[in-house]
Amino acid sequence: MPRLVVLRMGHRLVRDQRMTTHVALTARAFGADEVWVDREDHDLEARVADVVTRFGGPFGVRTGVSPKGSLRRWEGTVVHLTMYGEPLDETLPRIPRDRDLLLVVGSEKVPGDLFEKAGFNVAVGNQPHSEVAALAVFLDRWLQGDGLKKRFEGRLQVQPSARGKVVTTQTSEDP
Amino acid sequence: MPRLVVLRMGHRLVRDQRMTTHVALTARAFGADEVWVDREDHDLEARVADVVTRFGGPFGVRTGVSPKGSLRRWEGTVVHLTMYGEPLDETLPRIPRDRDLLLVVGSEKVPGDLFEKAGFNVAVGNQPHSEVAALAVFLDRWLQGDGLKKRFEGRLQVQPSARGKVVTTQTSEDP
Questions:
Q1: Domains, chain A, ranges and CATH?
Q2: Which end of chain A is more exposed for a tag (fewer CB within 10 A), N or C?
């Protein structure tokens, strides 16, 4: 299986922590293998690692990752999600399925040369909305719904329910 | 066309403004008609109205909306998005397409009786991620991709582009 990594650029400490946490958890829940964040942020790493511990993995998180270096060294395809890009519908069939995919998610400002470096600038709609929404819909469409069906083996398992919350807990020790 | 309204519950001033703005803009970009927010927040209203002015509508925003009253008075279907609900794939075909739809998006805490009041508790995956991601993917699947194709007539129009940013501005006066 080709690797699927989300690179979150423009992360600012404190101010973006909640949004970047949502980016990371969305990446995990919709089938990406890892999230990389440009700015070092140990709190963020701990928060994501905690979800992985409780709800399961594998899912990797790295912060303090140089975007320049990552883009230069990446041997697969680079897709940049941006409201200025080409429509998702038209772009998806052109993205190779047999290569690793680096999915770059910006914040409000990304360096202009990212548009040049990316193999594809993809717009999940040409309207302003949310990098979290764009990431989720891209992954859902790219993995053709299978991202959401990924099985996680964690300590906690949510059991789908028509009413209320049903969570089962796996204990690591036998009684 | 049945009406499609997103009700955001649990909004807290300042702390949630960015996240709720993303919920509102995602609702707009993915084809909902309106967003309602439980707590009154004029800044939020202004921010969303500003996007509507610049990028086009119609799209309505109301804050200070009583969730209890809204749920009681709503004559269509109520869908509650929650990681504890039933899988999206299985639920979507059961939601009536000819009735108005109120789509309830919580924050971390929602009152327990919401699970009873909603006609459907729908999980966009049974993993923790983001209300913005859940809303986007629900709308994308529910509107079968047509939400993203909605045309907006605003002052600014983003022109899809393989490289860089292309935005055209409509002036209201003739030269």
A1: 4-169 (3.40.1280.10)
A2: C
Please check whether residue A10 is in contact with residue A110, taking contact to mean a CB–CB distance below 8 angstroms: yes
Sign of CA dihedral A75, A76, A77, A80: negative
- Find, in chain A, the residue whose alpha carbon is nearest to that of B29: A127
Measured distance CA(B15)–CA(A146) in Å, rounded: 34
Comparing C-alpha atoms, which of B49, B61, B58 is closest to residue B153?
A: B58
CB contact under 8 A, B84 and A164: yes
Please give the ipTM for the structure prediction: 0.95
Task: For chains A and B, count residue pairs whose Cβ atoms are closer than 8 Å.
Answer: 159
Distance CA B3, CA B70 (A): 14
Which of B121, B124, B136 has the CB atom closest to A163's CB atom? Answer: B121
Can you give the pTM of this predicted structure?
A: 0.95
Q: What is the pLDDT of residues B22-75, one digit of tens each?
A: 999 999 999 999 999 999 999 999 999 999 999 999 999 999 999 999 999 999
Collect all residues of chain A within an 8 Å Cβ-Cβ radius of residue B127: 25, 28-29, 55, 152, 158
Å between B2 CA and nearest CA of chain A: 22
pLDDT truncated to tens, each residue of chain A (175 aa)?
899 999 999 999 988 999 999 999 999 999 999 999 999 999 999 999 999 999 999 999 999 999 999 999 999 999 999 999 999 999 999 999 999 999 999 876 788 889 989 999 999 999 999 999 999 999 999 999 899 999 998 999 999 999 989 999 987 655 4
Q: Are A30 and B85 inside 8 Å of each other by CB?
A: no
Is residue A94 within 8 A of residue A119, CB to CB? The reply is no
Does the beta-carbon distance from B137 to A136 stay under 8 Å?
A: yes
Distance from C-alpha of A3 to C-alpha of A102, rounded to nearest angstrom: 8
Of the residues B15, B107, B129, the best mutation for testing chain A's interface (the one with the most A CB atoms within 10 Å of its CB) is B129
